[in-house]
Write a structure and sequence with these properties.
By secondary structure, this protein is of the alpha+beta class. The chain has a domain of about 150 residues. It is about 25% helix and about 30% strand. It has 6 helices and 13 strands. The strands form 2 sheets. The chain has a 7-stranded mixed beta sheet with strand order 3-4-2-1-9-12-11. Strand 6 and strand 7 form a beta hairpin. Helix 1 packs antiparallel against helix 2. The chain is globular.
Length: about 220
């Protein structure tokens, strides 16, 4: 998966209809909450999407998500099921909570419609060790800065030296550039310059462009 081969741009990118086309119609972050990707202790992902609802009813949205989810689960039976935990609509704001068995399932589901059009449009979400990221072909020739202390990692060799450390690689094209927070299991040690530390184990990413990198403490 080489980032340089991906074609970016919301005009060409077709996102997962059940979640993104309708939920992102509200233009991103609301005053109520921010869309959040939370990494759980067992490696599963809890995804909370919070957006203005537009004209979409909660029942119709739930039905659309369940249809898409059933199709994904049927074609990916070995990894465990994606589940819809709740759909709430209040005062024009909809909150959808879904759980994915692992990071690969989250990435697969969120890119489900995209890869049918052009696999190069896939927006990655990776959570695993640095060595695993390297073996899967992710570009590690990037500069990372200390999240809390001075210091940098200058390129692939520095990052590969921390081969056992967990790293998150996330392309916010998945969220159309709207602000998203990632809740972490460990403190962030090094981050790319498009990541903001928002709490002890919380980072925020907004906008599109280069993928975001978060290297975690062991």
């Amino acid at each position: 998966m080489k980032n340089g081969n991906r074609i970016l741009g919301s005009g060409k990118r077709i996102l997962l209809a059940a979640l993104m086309v309708f939920l992102l119609a509200g233009c991103g972050k609301t005053a109520v909450e921010t869309t959040t990707i939370a990494i759980q202790k067992d490696g599963s992902i809890e995804h909370t999407v919070v957006e203005e609802s537009g004209e979409m009813s909660a029942d119709l949205l739930k039905s659309m998500i369940e249809e898409k989810m059933e199709a994904y689960n049927d074609s990916n039976s070995g990894a465990g099921d994606v589940t819809l935990d709740s759909v709430e609509l209040k005062e024009g704001v909809v909150k959808v909570v879904m759980t994915y068995p692992d990071a690969a399932s989250f990435e697969g589901f969120m890119n489900m419609d995209v890869v049918e059009v052009d696999p190069a449009l896939r927006a990655p979400f990776f959570y695993g060790t640095v060595e695993e990221a390297y073996m899967q072909g992710f570009d590690l020739d990037v500069a990372l800065q200390g999240a809390e202390k001075d210091g940098t990692l200058q390129g692939k060799n520095d990052i590969l030296a921390k081969s056992d450390s967990k790293i998150i690689i996330y392309d916010n094209e998945m969220n159309l550039g709207a602000a998203v927070q990632i809740r972490l299991r460990k403190k962030p040690l090094y981050i790319s310059d498009n990541v903001t530390v928002a709490g002890r184990k919380l980072v925020e990413i907004s906008g599109t462009g280069a993928p975001a990198y978060i290297l975690l403490e062991n």
